[in-house]
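ingest -> validate -> predict -> emit
validate: passed (alphabet ok, no gaps, 231 aa)
predict: started
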Amino acid sequence: MGRARFRFHGDLNDFLHSQRRSVWLDYEFRDRLSLKHAIETFGVPHPEVGEPSDLNRPLRDGEEIEVRPRLYPVPPNGQWRFVLDGHLGRLAKYLRILGFDTLYEAGADDRRLADAAAAGRFLLTRDRSLLMRRAVVHGLLVRHDEPRRQLEWLAARLGLWGAAEPLRRCLRCNALLEPVAKEKVWERIPPKTRLWCNEYMTCTGCGQLYWPGSHYERMQAWIRALRAKNE
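emit:
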């Protein structure tokens, strides 16, 4: 019988009962097992763990292990690429409004989500067991229920505000928008809109037409308010 001790730090304690937070926890084990397996028996998904860095090594008898949260740096190209589970549709829309590449399908199964994460996307989920899948490399369990709080928490956790490029993606399909001449989409523009608007964008994926109407102004105001609140 092997014995080890673990102590969890920072927001990893979100996964533990209050009496088990930031204190040494005894752990007994019989078989050879990895640090990943041992840590996840406490309910802490491996993508949330920054230290120890090598979670594939075997747990050794007598170890005392300090487990600390993973700090995700901004990607080298500055472009976050997310995939979200079916519980996070409103958060997906918010991330697209802010210009982030965000895959979301309401009916996507866990295997498909894990495959997208294995291909390099950052998984955001409300499902702890999904985040524990070995194929998932980068990801977080979204802590809050209310979508705007989810966004504020995520933006603070990953430092998203500096990388945001608002209103450059299609809210329907996630593809980039591109400018289009008014005369090329004339038949698609509502008659009253033709009278005052001369700037239009189309989605490079699904062809959805956009223009800076009152909805655009509301989104701009919303983004400014969120940034002011969190800077």
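Residues 177-230 form one domain.
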